[in-house]
Amino acid sequence: xxxxxxxxxxxxxxxxxxxxxxxxxxxxxxxxxxxxxxxxxxxxxxxxxxxxxxxxxxxxxxxxxxxxxxxxxxxxxxxxxxxxxxxxxxxxxxxxxxxxx
Length: 101
Description:
Number of helices: 4
Strand content: 5-15%
Largest sheet: 3 strands, parallel
Number of domains: 1
CATH class: Alpha Beta
Number of strands: 3
Oligomer: single chain
CATH architecture: 3-Layer(aba) Sandwich
Helix content: 25-40%
């Protein structure tokens, strides 16, 4: 199931859930989102609810997002969880002091 339609717009029923979350001072947690669903991070920014994107980086999984998409989500205010267990080897070999691309 997707949170967006074929044009990339957030589905009306998802917007209703976001409004309820706002009313209840809730957050939105998402994991295993598709790349296209970064549109959701824009809506959560517009509605002003925190959005946490989990399990976003993995070379071995089809739901992995490229860094450029993650940056876009972060620019929309999303919090990106970096799960070391699922990160690609190229990512975990970085020095802790090294900046991300």
